[in-house]
Specification:
Layout lengths: L1 H17 L2 H10 L1 E7 L3 H14 L4 E7 L1 H9 L6 E3 L3 H9 L9 E6 L1 E6 L20 E4 L5 H12 L10 E4 L2 H9 L5 E5 H6 L4 E7 L5 E7 L6 H11 L1 H9 L6
Helix pairs in contact: 3-10
C-alpha cells in the first residue's frame, strides 16, 4: 500500500511538471517571426536581424529574400509571413489591395538608386546608357520588369532616354536583382542595371558607369502582414524606422525615405 501511494505521488508530480510544457513551446514558437524582403535588402537585413535579436532576447528572425512580386505570390499562396518589405510601392499596393498586409502599419523606410554597371575589368569605354547601342555591347542584364522592381526602374530609365525598344534584342532578364548582379560580376554580360546598394556590395567586381534617373522614386515600403499578429513583428518594423535600424541601413548604402 505504501509503495502504491509513493508511485501515485511520483505520477502526480510528473503530470504537474508536464503541464507548463505546451504553453512554453507555444511561447517559443510565437517568438519566431518570418520576414520576407526584397533581394536587394539581403546584406542589410542579415545585419539588422542580428542586432534586433540581441535587443529582443528569445525572438528569432527568419528571413526570406526574393523578387518583390515573387514574395507577394508566395503570400497569396499561403506562405507564412509576418513582415513584408518590398523594393517598390506597386507591389505593396497590391499586397494592400489583396488584404495581405495591414495598411495601418505600412511605412516607407529607405530609398535606393539605380545605376548602370559593367564588370570591373571591362574594356568597354561606356559613359552612359546611350553607349549601350554600340555593336560591342551584346548582352545587357536587368531584372524582369514584370516581377523585379529594379528591372521596372531600369525600363523606366531606358524609356525616358528613348532606348527601351532599340535595345530589346540585347536584354538578359534576371529573376531578381541579385541574379542580375551575379551576371555582371562574373562577366557573363557586358553591362547591367542594378540598385546602387547592390553595386556597393560588389564594388570589388563591378564598376559603376552612371547613376540613372527614374520616373518613380525607389522608395521601399514595409508592413506587418494581416497574419502577423506577434508583437515582435510590429517591433521589427519600428526597429527599421528607429535610429539604430536607419544607421545600419545607411551603412549598406540606403538613403533615408
Amino acid at each position: 500500500m505504501r509503495n502504491l501511494r509513493h508511485a501515485l505521488k511520483i505520477l502526480a508530480l510528473t503530470l504537474l511538471l508536464a503541464v507548463p510544457a505546451a504553453p512554453a513551446q507555444a511561447a517559443e514558437q510565437a517568438s519566431e517571426i518570418i520576414v520576407s524582403a526584397a533581394a536587394s535588402l539581403t546584406n542589410a537585413f542579415d545585419a539588422l536581424k542580428k542586432t534586433f535579436e540581441a535587443a529582443h532576447p528569445g525572438v528569432t528572425v527568419v528571413t526570406n529574400y526574393g523578387a518583390s512580386v515573387a514574395l507577394l505570390k508566395q503570400m497569396e499562396s499561403g506562405a507564412p509571413v509576418d513582415v513584408f518589405a518590398s523594393a517598390d510601392q506597386k507591389t505593396m499596393d497590391q499586397a494592400v489591395a489583396k488584404k495581405l498586409v495591414n495598411q495601418a502599419t505600412r511605412r516607407d523606410f529607405v530609398r535606393n538608386g539605380l545605376v548602370l554597371v559593367v564588370p570591373l575589368d571591362s574594356k568597354l569605354a561606356l559613359a552612359g546608357e546611350r553607349d549601350l547601342t554600340r555593336p560591342g555591347v551584346a548582352r545587357i542584364a536587368l531584372g524582369n520588369p514584370e516581377i523585379v522592381p529594379a528591372g521596372r526602374y531600369a525600363k523606366e530609365s531606358l524609356e525616358l532616354s528613348g532606348l527601351w525598344a532599340e535595345l530589346t534584342q540585347k536584354y538578359i532578364f534576371g529573376n531578381n536583382v541579385r541574379q542580375v548582379l551575379d551576371y555582371v560580376a562574373r562577366g557573363e554580360v557586358d553591362a547591367a542595371f542594378v540598385f546602387s546598394t547592390d553595386a556597393m556590395q560588389a564594388r570589388a567586381k563591378v564598376r559603376v558607369v552612371k547613376e540613372l534617373a527614374t520616373k518613380t522614386p525607389a522608395l521601399y515600403p514595409v508592413a506587418v502582414t494581416t497574419s502577423g499578429t506577434k508583437p515582435a513583428a510590429r517591433a521589427f518594423v519600428d526597429f527599421l524606422l528607429g535610429a539604430e535600424g536607419q544607421r545600419i541601413l545607411g551603412s549598406f548604402g540606403f538613403g533615408k525615405p
